[in-house]
Design goal:
- There is one protein chain.
- Helix content is 72%, strand content 0%.
- The radius of gyration is 25 Å and the shape is globular.
- Among the domains are: 13-104, MazG-like (Helix Hairpins, Orthogonal Bundle), CATH 1.10.287; 106-140, no CATH class; 223-270, no CATH class.
- Helix 3 packs antiparallel against helix 4 (62-85) and helix 9 (173-193) packs antiparallel against helix 10.
- The protein contains 12 helices and no strands.
- The mean pLDDT is 91.
- The chain has helices spanning 13-24, 32-36, 39-58, 62-85, 91-105, 107-110, 119-136, 152-165, 173-193, 196-217, 221-245, 255-270.
- By secondary structure, the chain is mainly α.
- Residues 37-110 form the NTP pyrophosphohydrolase MazG-like domain.
- It is an enzyme of class 3 (hydrolase).
- This is Nucleoside triphosphate pyrophosphohydrolase.
- Belongs to the nucleoside triphosphate pyrophosphohydrolase family.
- GO terms for molecular function: ATP diphosphatase activity.
Length: 273
């Protein structure tokens, strides 16, 4: 008979979670859905949980963040259980790997190097260490190791940062803005004269340069767009609320009315409390 003592121990900590996942994946007694999963099928959930963590942080919902961090930890436990079953790695080997990496990348904390350096210098040193690690993995090209699965805007910035390290970069924002104007004009031309595939390519070029402008301005494009998405949601919901007070829905309104309500919502946000 299986001993469930650890499973039901509320103070069992990480060993309890590892055992729960092991049991869920047990081919004889586990959960049919969990048994069927593999790295590819679980990866989308891992990405989703990461975004839910970021969302809780953005909303400063700390109780929810606690739960979302637990969900994200579960993703690591899930992948390491599958890795263990396949003989690839284990939870302990993953922990050892990241701990070794943190020690190696922080010689100014765990080694003999001086901590008396600027944040910029520490960042430069960090990148040198990472470059050496990539060289050890035979990733010799400048853009090697930038994960293809990253959100597109985030990956664009990382690619641009890598290229900038070897001098492939505009020296100031004015040139980036000029390039944005050029790409916008090309997109308009493509819309009128080219195929949908070519329009998509020109649109991608414009987004890439806009991401580059964010990098030059010290703005994270993903964070900026998340903020704008939240603002749009907030103001559109204000439109819905105002229409509802009139006994109407957005579909029963028109653009002019909703635009005026949008301006009112915007003005309301700008007023001091």
């Amino acid at each position: 008979m299986t001993d469930d003592t650890l499973i039901h121990d509320p103070n069992g900590g990480l060993p309890r979670l590892l055992e729960i996942m092991r049991r869920l994946r047990d081919p004889e007694t586990g959960c049919p859905w969990d048994i069927e999963q593999d790295f590819d099928s679980i990866a989308p959930y891992t990405i989703e949980e990461s975004y839910e963590v970021a969302d809780a942080i953005a909303r400063k919902d700390w109780p929810e963040l606690e739960g979302e961090l637990g969900d994200l930890l579960l993703q690591t436990v899930y992948h390491t259980q599958m890795g263990s079953e396949a003989g690839l790695f284990s939870f302990d080997s993953v922990v050892k790997s990241v701990a070794d990496k943190m020690v190696a990348r922080h010689p100014h904390v765990f080694g003999d190097e001086s901590r008396d350096k600027s944040a910029d210098q520490q960042t430069a040193d960090w990148e040198k260490i990472k470059a050496a690690e990539r060289a050890g993995k035979k990733q010799g090209r400048t853009l090697d190791g930038v994960a293809a699965g990253l959100p597109a805007l985030t990956r664009a910035v990382k690619l641009q940062k890598r290229a900038a390290r070897v001098g492939f970069d505009w020296p100031d924002t004015s040139q980036v803005i000029d390039k944005i104007k050029e790409e916008a004009a090309e997109l308009v031309e493509a819309r009128d004269t080219l195929t949908q595939t070519e329009v998509e390519e020109e649109y991608g070029d414009l987004l890439f340069v806009v991401a580059n402008l964010g990098r030059h301005l010290g703005v994270d494009p993903e964070a900026a767009l998340r903020g704008t998405n939240a603002k749009f949601t907030r103001r559109f919901e204000a439109i819905e609320d105002a229409l509802s007070a009139k006994g109407k829905s957005p579909s029963e309104s028109d653009l002019a009315e909703m635009d005026a309500l949008w301006d009112a919502a915007k003005l309301s946000e700008l007023k001091p409390n």
